[in-house]
Amino acid sequence: MRLPPHQRGAFLAPVFSLMTASALYAMSITAQAQIQNPSTNLATGASVTASTADLAAAYAVDGDNGTRWASAAQTDPSWLSIDLGQLYNLNQVEIFWEAANADTYEILGSSNGSQWTTLSTQTGGQFGHRTDSVSVNGTYRYVRINGLSRSAGNQWGYSIWELGVFGSPATCDNGCMLEVNGSTARAQMDGGDIVDLHYSINGGAQQNVRMNQSGSEWTYDVPNLSSGDTVSYFFTKITNGVGETTDAAQFTFGGQGGSSSSSSGGGSGSGGSSSSSSSSSGGGSSSSSSGGSSGGGSSSSSSGGADLGSIVPLYDGSTPLEPVIQYETATALVTRFSDRARDRHAKEDHFQAYDHYLSFYWEDRTAAIEIIDEVAKGGDSVRMNVRTEFKLSDTEAENRWFYRGVGTVAEYCDNGTMVVEDQYNYHKERTYNCREGRNIQVGDKLEFELSQFLDASVPNGRANYYGTTFLYIVGEGLVPWDVGGTTPFGGVKDSYKIPEAAWLGGDTTIHALTSGETDNHFMQMATNIGYENAQPFMRGRRVLHSSAVDGVHDEKPIENPPLQDMIGLAGPHYIADSCASCHERNGRAAPAPVGEPLEKWTFKVADANGNPDPYLGSALQPKARGGASSEGNVSIAFWSEQNGLRSPNYAFTGVTPERFSARIAPNLVGMGLLEAIEESAIVAQADPNDSNGDGISGRVNRVVDPETGDTRLGRFGWKAGAPSIRHQLARAFNTDMGVMTSVFPEPDCGSSQNDCGSGGAELDDQHLQDLTKYIALLGVRPQRNHDDPSVQNGQQLFSSIGCADCHTPTQQTSANHPFAELRDQTIHPYTDLLLHDMGPGLADNLGEGEASGAEWRTAPLWGLGLSACVTGGVENPVGGQGNEVCTPEHSYLHDGRARSIEEAILWHGGEGEASKNGYQGLSASGKQDLLNFLNSL
């Protein structure tokens, strides 16, 4: 029982038989005396808050052993947070629990009260009074006790007599941000040819500035700070053309005579004391650029989103960040990105030879580009610095500027070659706009194309290549472009900036298709791919296209050599030998004809209780190597059809599992941007109890991080079963290809199988990191026909009939993702990433994580109208160059049953029932407008 508040004494907990309240109190005093830390308790008298408080939070830090904080009954999770007032190097936390205590709880630390790091997770707590002394490590100002689950028998809440936090004031080493007076703070960084500071104040917009050089020292005074402001920052140092980025850090400004803090180390400042801490300190693990854990705690997000409960964000304020793509200095707008070699030019649809990839594309065929736009800051020149992977031809270091389109659709008025600095570095600088016949001005369209005419000594492949066609708006940056109209010289296919509302992938959005290659939409790198990221992108692409049986590349296998590191990794049981076997051209698969094996599908399987099948494991793997036995094939035995809607009936040649879920290979584009959406933004959209009564109750899927054990938000897979791209890929290697990684080092094996092979990582982690970067940085095509009145009306109907209630049109990515290309982007994926019950018609009998058999993650809609041509590919019925045409193969929903977008709509039941009915109630023209809109995505 729980006594009503007016009957509870200051120390009285749940009523126990055989023990009086006074006896409990006496025991508590004795226990407290035995464990009291001899150091000063930093928590006593500190500012304190709690998620709920039946008894005041302040009672836990008042120094009175007879008063306690009590959370609301049966509310998990619940937390208590204290503000120590400044940063301390923490070493111990002591919790004097009242009998109503935690079975599992976290101790979290934070330097700003918004981003949290897990210092320790404690489990196995038993009901009854106890004191926990927990060693911690790290420099933090805020400490939170986050109760995740209550001990067995605790029918009340969480209750703490007194909280102890112990440590010493933080100190500062050379190189940190220094307080210099009451309104500015100094950032200092040694060495480098160029040093840039990237900072934001109190979670605001990121500022990117070139620091001031004095000899080998670079400094910058951050202006307009007030006491208590939190500055998040990192440095980019470029030495001999190579960029180096520091870990992300935070600076808490103390004001005149106050204290300040930093994570990168520094000297002492005037006007007050300063302190520092390592960005990787504490019990939490720092995130890597490969997409690992950041160790952030469970809390409300810094942007004021929903409380995450037990969910630990993938990335937080301590995540190391790659260098930004664009920043400003006092004299220039600087854009740093990269490019790849091409066969032909972007606007030459008569060749259809631009979007595909060349032989040896991972060798010597990318370039890093830096645009220094001084016109943007009142200057008169634009300079382009280019770094190549191989020496260019002495006479053909071509970089063509200002499109004219006269005679050919690849003609520019400034075709001059670049100045050669050395065999890898080149530049071109201009003040004159030959297209307009005047000096360059802000707003000018500087379309350019870098041609990589390599020196003939290049070891593999041919030497001459063109490059990507970019549109740079002077004073603004790179923009996705389309064609239309004439140039000032009467040329055709002039380029124009696509309206930003049609940039489905934010700054990653690539230009419109103008080369006529309808099957290659999903294979392009992001427009804003970073200065150092073209090569890992290409290496990752090679992994995706290489067989784990013989290493052979599925494109140009005669010219492209096998990837030696992939040879012999597949099996003993597997589904396919390469990623591209199922995700052809990075698109979705389609159902095989009746009776033929479904080789591009995954069948998740289980026994009657939902546990791995004893003869199959967690996924059916039909192929076998090395003496292992096949687990059998699955095919579509026949289709059932009712009211124009078809559904598959499956036939198993081996063991027929008690439970299974059929999953077709989905599109791969846009995954990086979905990973970059902040957890709090997704949780804020959830309404598990349908509190607003609209019939939609989106839920999050909480999954376990296989590397850290943290609870994460599920994002990927048809039921949101994977928290990150890295983990989704590692799981696919494990179950689909039978390849072990550091993430999943054990084979997928049933308890009755004995031919599964041994454990241990087989794929080098660098290959997994490169593949993760490749998938994350694929570009998204822009919306097409966005100015068509039918499409615009269809977009309004999409919202008015309720489709947008689950297919959320717009999301914002966070500032914490390690890849700069994905940070702070406004995107239009048309998904809330939540689970929704879609009714019995689409249900199977196997859940995943917290998802039931009837629940599916809202599928993103970007690329929807392009996928049929990507899946079906092209044919050339008349022969000759430029005559390839799309042979569409429509395949929608999780098992490809829908043969059209309309059929997919009509399958919506459960939470999608009302929207389906709304669609059916539209006029014929209204339905067509809505379908035209969906096809535009």
TrEMBL record:
Domain of life the protein comes from: Bacteria
Domain named Cytochrome c: residues: 789-937
InterPro entries: CBM56, Cyt_c-like_dom, Cyt_c-like_dom_sf, Cytochrome_c_Peroxidase/MauG, DHOR, FA58C, Galactose-bd-like_sf
UniProt keyword terms in alphabetical order: Heme, Iron, Metal-binding, Signal
Domain CBM56: 163-253
Ranges of compositional bias, category Gly residues: 254-272
Signal peptide range: 1-33
Low complexity compositional bias, start-end: 273-291
PANTHER family per UniProt: CYTOCHROME C DOMAIN-CONTAINING PROTEIN (PTHR30600:SF4), CYTOCHROME C PEROXIDASE-RELATED (PTHR30600)
Protein name: Di-heme oxidoredictase family protein
Record organism: Microbulbifer celer
